[in-house]
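This week, work through this protein record:
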Amino acid sequence: MPRLAKGGVLYEETPFIGGEYSGASNNPEIVTPQNVMYDTMRRAIEDVQFFNNSNDGQPIYLTVNVGNKKLGQILLEDLRDRKRQTGKDIEALVGG
């Protein structure tokens, strides 16, 4: 399904074919419920924090992409839209 080519969020039964692209054997697709992905990400971040704290204490930079956009970019665009709609400054929108 072309609409799922770069991933998607499914709220109901949706037939699709996964892992069909030529690079799937080297870069497989992951199909999982949201809570499983959340728990997996949380454990991975905790592991990195543990190892980082036990080593040199250098900061860890994590980039999360959603499709072709970085999550921070998506959030900033949303905040800017909300600012235009509500007239509130971004700090007020995030509770800062």
